[in-house]
Amino acid sequence: MRYEELIRQVEQLAAGGLHRAGAERALAATLTTLGRCLPERLAADLADQLPLGAKRYLSGPPSGRQEALSLTELLEEIAELEGVSSSEALDHARAVIDALRQAVTGHELQRVRAELPEQLEPLFAPPAAAGWPESHRRRAHP
To answer: What is the full DSSP assignment across 38-99?
Structure first.
């Protein structure tokens, strides 16, 4: 999947839709924060399957040691990086992860899911817009 396609997916899957800049911030904030929670090798494996524009955010934990963040801490960090509320950060993170389902192999995303603590499971629920009829989703802007 190309970077443009990944961003379009995030735009469409976020509740109420996102414009390109918002989708890029959501992608960057989510991948940067998730990368800190994953073992360095797994973050690198996931990054290898992402388009060039997205893989730079998955550098893994800065210390080489993964961080154990609670769901609240993770959402607060995503929200701060993205400049949105924690509830918006949850929806945007879900949109990013749902878009990743189409961008990477299912096996890789399962490895990520298995590595994260159970309390982060809500991130893998479909975003609100995923269940909306196509007519109610924001159209991607070219």
So the answer is: S-HHHHHHHHHTS-HHHHTT----TTSS-----HHHHHHHHHHHHTS-HHHHHHHHHHHHHH
The CATH number for 3-124, chosen from 3.20.20.30, 3.40.50.1820, 1.25.40.20, 1.10.490.110, is 1.10.490.110
Write out pLDDT tens, residues 14-46.
887 889 999 999 999 999 999 888 888 888 899
pTM score above 0.90: no
CA–CA gap between residue 131 and residue 24 (Å, rounded): 22
Domain locations along the chain: 3-124
Q: How many H-runs (helices) and E-runs (strands) does the chain carry?
A: 7, 0
The Cα 54–Cα 72 span in angstroms is: 24
